[in-house]
Amino acid sequence: NRNIKAVHASSTLKDKSHLYAAEGITDTFQDSAVFRWKKNNIPWVEGKIGDGIDEYLDIELNPYNKNMGVRLILVNGYVDPIRPYLFKQNNRVKTFLVETNTGYSKDLTFRDEVEFTFVDLPAGTTRIKLTIKDVYKGTKYDDTCLSAAYVKYIDLSER
């Protein structure tokens, strides 16, 4: 997503075969117009022992227009169309604390489903911090996952 300049994580899981880096959440779709899923997409997985409470992602945006709002689109959990069981086997975020450089601060609670979740943020947003505050427990793993983050700029006057 060209609107995201960089993503940094407080921790990252590395196992025998993968590094579940934060950058993976920005490279999920082949075509953003229809959100066509890429093969072999690797989600971000926090690397802290336990559920990952207080672990975070820091998303830095490419400035576009200071008068435009930001629509953050998230896909929660480990979402893999070929291995759908991974969604329930791993932890999913139940609640993120969403904070921006503009002073915006709000809890975002997800439903425990595979879906797109939209968050509209104020004009002037150039940094977004997502901190894990609560999770849905996985049936097999205690790793908390996020599959995708996408940013669009929106005209706040049309809302």
Summarize the structure.
The protein is mainly beta and 159 residues long.
What would your notes on this structure say?
The protein is mostly beta strands and 159 residues long. The radius of gyration is 15 Å and the shape is globular. The protein starts with a strand and ends in a 5-residue tail after the last strand. Strands 1, 4, 5, 6, 7, 8, 9, 10 and 11 form a nine-stranded mixed beta sheet that branches. The chain has a two-stranded antiparallel ribbon with strand order 2-3. The longest helix is centred in the middle third of the chain and has 4 residues, at 86-89. The chain has one helix at residues 86-89; strands at 4-9, 29-31, 36-37, 44-45, 56-61, 69-76, 91-100, 105-109, 116-121, 127-136, 144-154. The protein contains one helix and eleven strands. The model has no long low-confidence stretch (mean pLDDT 92).
Report the major sheet: 9 strands, mixed
Q: DSSP strand (E) fraction?
A: 35-45%
Apparent shape: globular
Catalogue the unreliable spans. none
Average pLDDT taken over every residue: 92
* Radius of gyration of CA atoms, rounded to a whole number: 15 Å
Write the layout of secondary structure elements.
Layout lengths: L3 E6 L19 E3 L4 E2 L6 E2 L10 E6 L7 E8 L9 H4 L1 E10 L4 E5 L6 E6 L5 E10 L7 E11 L5
